[in-house]
Protein 1
Amino acid sequence: MDIQVQKVGIVSCSGEEIPEGTLCRLACRRVLDERPGETVTICLPLFIAGGEEERTFASNYPTITVDGCDKMCAAKATEMLSGKPAKSLSIPEILKKHGLKAPDKLRHFGPEEDAAVRAVAGEIARAVDEVLEEE
Amino acid sequence: MGKKHKKVVVLPCSGIGKVFGALARETMYELLEKTRPGTVATTCLPLLVIQDPEAVALVTANPVITIDGCPKDCAKKSVQALGKEPEKAYEAIKFYTAHKDLKPEGIAEVNETGRKLAQVAAAEVAKVVDELAAGEEA
């Protein structure tokens, strides 16, 4: 008997312009590395630059979007171009919930930023669990 | 010589799955913060995907250099989707093939060797930045 393992799609804000974008990328990458059998990702611009396979991403996988600012590019682009996300997370809201400040640099995160990366990765992992339970 | 530009926009790959995406981003940050601060500007690639008016205006009003991390060329195609051709399009892997002694590693961020390669790449891209800022064709 084949056992179908459901994967959850994670769409990260790439946020090159803001520290929260780097935080978002690092946290998403951490979850993808820690949950390789249960998670998959796509580069957000592939909704435009890619083909049919990329555009049906959110139809093929229940998707969690993670955004670094209130412009919510990941959530909006996923919904507009692929399909409605199962969950939408916001870095500013996660930092506020955990009483953490946003990092103040764009790159080369180190121990000072690790608490924020851990907090965001933890919230993404929790969302993955919730989506898998719902499926 | 064409119009002089205050800003040259550098748009890297936004991927978190491949080392050359991370190298593209590190090269942009090196230009933005160290090699050509004040001249180089960037914006988040997904802002172009959702057609954010400020991001679209920045890209359409200034010369653009794209640095892509894989053959899917998201950065270049995101600019083309706005009806504009980037003034110069790089593939990050070519920085490595030109400097094979600097093998980058890492996915979300590059390692120390990758940072050195990004410095070398930024110095090369800076020449094109200067030409475009002066109103010359790349």
Protein 2
Amino acid sequence: MLSVAQWTSWLVTGRSLFLLIHLLGVALFSYIVARRLVPLIRGERDFRFDQPWVRLTRVLKYWLGQWKQPRYRAAGTLHIFIFAGFLVLAIRAFSVLIVGVSQNFVTPGLSGRAGHIYDIITDYAATIVFLCMVIAVVRRLVFKPARYAVPARYGKSHTADAIFLLSLIALLMLADSLFAAAKVAAQASQSQATEALATFPLPWILRDLLVSTPLPTVARIYLGAYLVHELTFYFLLCYRPFGIQFHVETSLFNVYFAKLDREILKPVRWDVSDEHLDQVKSFGVKTFEDFTWKHMLDFYSCADCGRCSDNCPANAVGRPLSPRFITVKARDYSFQHYPVFGRANNGRALVGDIYSADEIWSCTTCGACEEECPLLVEYIDKIVDLRRGMVDEGNVPQSLQKPLKALESRGNPYGKLEKKRAEWANTKDFQQTCPVRILDHPNGTEALYFVDSITSYDDRIQSIGRATAKILSHIGENFGILGTTERDSGHEVRRFGEETLFMALRDHNVEAIKGCGVHRIVTADPHAYNALKHDYKDVPPVEHISEVIARAVEAGKIKFRPVDNATDVYTYHDPCYLGRHNQIYDDPRDVLDAIPGLTRVEMSRSRDRSFCCGGGGLMLFYEPKEDQRMGVKRVQMAAEAGANVIVTACPFCMVNIEDAIKVAGLEGKMTAIDLTELVDRQMARECPNWGEEQVYEIKECVTVSSHILK
Amino acid sequence: MEILVCVRRVPDTSENEIELNSAGNDIERDELVYSINEADNYAVEEALQIVAKIGGNVTVVTVGGEDDEEVLRREMAMGAHHGVLITDEAFSGSDGRGIATILKAFVQQDHYDLILTGVQAEDGGAQIGGMLAALLDYPFASLVNSIEVLEGRKLKISREIEGGNKEWSEIDLPCVLSIQTGINEPRYVGMRGIRQVASVLIPTFSASQLGLDENTVGLSAAKVTRLDYFIPSLGKGAEILHGNRKENIDKVLELVAAKGGLK
């Protein structure tokens, strides 16, 4: 019987040698992990300990279930195999390690038949993991998926490190299989009852190679395989906390502690209420230690898969932002400033050091990166926190200072007069057909239409406001607007890091909304919708107009006449703050599909993979460094899908897409229309139930008056 | 270095629709929002950057009323160390020389190495800097778009000349400089910053505290007085379009095309 524990050479027994390796390996790993925890302890507080059951179900879904992985078919499938293999092999790895010390160790519950079945499964698992490693290496070396590339400005390629780690895992699998094969081969050559091996996997193949080998050689191979397994295992264990493979250990925790309400922006401080914020000395993230411990855990957990940046619109158009490297740079910074050996040194500002100001302002907070991340790494909160830090330091681009100042003094980013806020509703022909009530006191009005700044002031976008009002009155909604007392919702103000200004705008609006006594709020602006729904507290429930329209269509309150031009092909562009941030994907589509004769196609990037048009609110004022506009890319995607009408449901999307159509040279070939404008255009406006006599009277009247006019 | 920056609160041109009042002798001020004069903001930023480099203090001063305190606080939120409000009923109606006289009296109360003003007030005539320097008998340079502090109480300064070129000069301290916009990128002042200096006491000075003879300031001493505002009358060949934006654009295109400007 072969035994590694009982092997002796030069007064050293296997048992003592392997015990020493175990102790050293575990001690070193514990030490490294303890050092890695140092910055987390110094980081800001983050409240992630609530709702354990919800968190556990998310662990089951995203961690054990690998929910996001199949979004990338090839890599995702590969990862699911590797992950499953690792889980299966985890118990075997420990039992193999213990065998080095105690030859006859059997994992509790895995003796006899159960153990045998488990062995067969693990033989397959090790082989599958081994093959996955081979495929992964080939992918890296031959197919080179673009998302793994490291642009020169972010440093050196990560390929060598990735291949090194993949090879080590392959080696571990090989050693494990050889160890199992040698044991069986030795049993066979000693004519003992051999353990049956699963057919085809590595141990089965290796056993055949070893069967004719002399027993002493097999014994040496057995020992050698064990030693290699042992050393590789501990090397990997202690090497992983130095790079991307740390996610093997941290992912479980990262998923457990991941944010539950993704739509809710992180407060400035978890432990300070709004009223006490003035006493906080510094806002936002300026140094590494200003990140919360969970955000630091995110940095450790990133597996460098590149999916975030692959979906990031800012990255796609050449802005100086790649979410992947927000994480990679922070991790490198952390490893450098919190070394495993030596003293921590820190305290330098991150912006201007590892991050550039433009990098942080480039984000549209569209959420594509977070939607994609298999490990639920958070980005928007970090970007906003970094911006809060920059705003606090006065480090704000000149292009944004003017609109911010105007928001402070006039309540809108354009610096337009407050008294003109409701003028969109005062154009003569509109006012006659659809008078809009101004709500300044409780008068029994049911719903508030929250218009927000762009729809109130922008000449082009005012048409969305009028269309919305017409739809609301068509379906018999008892509604009004705040008029001159409305202020900007502050949605982008907050996301651009100006928390104090946001709070002032919010408080003003909350008071105005409460003052008019409505029971519901409707808006046609997804940014206002998101702000009212998630950033505001104590306001009546809010709906986006697309939800209201979809319901009215279903209830038969809105009937459509067929489209005039049946050759037009429509596509729906999901606004980020309606789709990804609030999961309203189907209502707008249902409305489109209810219009007779309307042909609708989907763009390849739609629903939760929608591609941001360029960003809303203050982003319209920011002058990014970019090769191309996001909107142009988006318009081209619509053209590729074969569409010539882009329907959207957001005023900012409208501005960006209409501009992009011109920039892309598609004027005349492509048009953009807001959902409300389309519904207003297609709504069948039936006459009330007039009797024949009344119709006759009217006709008579018209004839008479036209005679008089002549 | 002790730096004094003279600032002024003006109607914000980007956030107001400036209209004449019915009497035609002033603009309609009912719904105006005010802010710091833009060029003055650049001057304060420049002062802060100099002090950050070589040490010292920045004081911002304005001549006006209680309402003008707002801009002092904004600049203090930006980083200015002290704010001073010079206020007296006797000052109302002062012309440029009157304001310069008041500032001169204030400057002489203390010691400043460098005095900065914005290149001009958005509602003013670029008078104060030069006159203040003359009254103090200090050297003066206008339209300054870069400052470098040299050894031996000297500054190296530049102004833009034709074709985007720079003219470099050396100037002795103490001196007065009028600062051109674009000399730097002024930092942002958020609401939070302003709230943090909201309760800082801002000292005020009156005419008597500055030892000013009331006959040298105010309306009675003003030798330049504003007569009127007027809207230029329609010149020959001029046409004003009175439609909405879309109509105006169509009309402009039509007119340009009619004159052969569009082919």
